Amino acid sequence: MTRWLESYPDTARTAFFAELAAPATGTDAAGARNALLTLLRDTDTPQERQQLLLPQVVEHIATVLRLRADRFDANTSLVTLGLDSLMAIALRNRLQRELALDIPTTVMWTHPTASALTRYLLARLSPEQGHEDARPGAEPARAG
Fold first, then answer.
1. Helix axes 85-99, 27-42, angle to 10 degrees
2. Residues 118/53, Cβ–Cβ less than 8 Å
3. 8 A C-beta contact, residue 1 and residue 89
4. Which site among 21, 41, 85, 139 is 20 to 30 Å from 105 CA-CA?
5. CB-based contacts of 129: which residues, under 8 Å, 6+ apart?
6. Cα separation, 78 vs 87, whole angstroms
7. Element (H, E) at 124
8. Average pLDDT for residues 28-36, to the nearest whole number?
9. Opening angle at CA 39, ends 117 and 46, nearest 5
10. Which of 3, 4, 143, 5 is nearest to 74 (CA)?
């Protein structure tokens, strides 16, 4: 993607591609990321970690989809909200930067709601908890 954006600098400067072209690190972003990761690591229960991370994931989704975060709930399908392949890459990039994880783009399709995506990310952040959602081919947990 970087090579393509370099080949088309005028296109890369448009608002739509700005998220994809954004640098991977920054001092403010790194500080916020470290604070969030420390907070998640220091939280005692999985439910508390879910409550901390879910609003962050919803905010990233809302930003990428250009929606207000209060316009959808955490169990709304990302596809229903308008997620396409370029937006999935932008969302993945945002989450990777914030959580310092390597996240496959396909996760947006296999964990297609903010809730399911959050569970997946938490499982990746703390694999010792034995979460099913962290496995690459795992079925997303269903809201019940």
1. 70
2. yes
3. yes
4. 41
5. 46, 122, 123
6. 10
7. helix 114-125
8. 66
9. 50
10. 143
The pair of three-digit structure tokens given for residue 3, joined into one six-digit string: 């090579």
Residue 109 is encoded by which pair of tokens? 């399709």
Of all residues in the chain, what percent carry a pLDDT higher than 90?
A: 52
Q: What is the dihedral of CA 20, 32, 96, 40, to 10 degrees?
A: -160
C-alpha 128/C-alpha 3 separation (Å) is 37
Contact 124/130 with Cβ under 8 angstroms? no
Chain position carrying tokens 């783009």: 105
Q: Which residue has the higher pLDDT, 130 or 140?
A: 130
* Helix segments in 43-132, DSSP class H: 46-65, 78-81, 85-99, 107-110, 114-125
- What single-letter DSSP state applies at residue 88? H
Residue 58 has φ and ψ, to the nearest 5°, of -60, -40
Show the tokens assigned to 87. 């937006």
Two tokens, residue 106: 């396909």
